[in-house]
Amino acid sequence: MKNLTTLGRILFALPFGILGLNHFFMKSYYLGMISTFIPGGGYTIIITGLALIAACISIIAKKYIQLSCLLLALLLFIFILTIHVPGLFDSTPIIILKMDTKVSTLALIELLKDTSLMGGALMIAGIYRDEKAAVKA
After folding, report:
1. Domain count of the chain?
2. pLDDT at residue 66, as a whole number
3. Contact partners, residue 73, CB within 8 Å, separation at least 6
4. Which residues face 42 on adjacent strands?
5. Which tens digits make up the pLDDT trace of 36-87?
6. 59-65, long-range: CB within 8 Å, 24+ apart, which pairs?
7. The domain containing residue 31 runs over which residues?
């Protein structure tokens, strides 16, 4: 069972590292997604990328994992409030894979994905809090 938890923890963390790297390589893409009221523009994207990479490394290395997961959950919550919720009200039509859809549909999918990932981060934080308490006892 321990091997499954280790594999799950690593599989949970890796996409955050890749997304963090994407914040550097695809900065112009993320600039198009950022809300106008978020200060910093490109700097915010770089800082977010660094935070995602740091969380990935921390979770994989099992160093400060509880703190990293709590901060990651907070970051995902900020994404939900500042990117996905405003996107729910955008009815701009777009074409994806020859299907006519709306930005709001994609925002809902992203909102649900980030909500799920936030739940996973909170679960991992809770598991490692309990594990830390068991070691002290």
Report:
1. 1
2. 94
3. 118, 121, 122, 125
4. none
5. 667 777 788 899 999 999 999 999 999 999 999 999 999 999 989 988 888 8
6. 59/9, 59/10, 59/12, 59/13, 59/16, 59/124, 60/9, 60/10, 60/13, 60/14, 62/9, 62/128, 65/124, 65/125, 65/128
7. 2-136
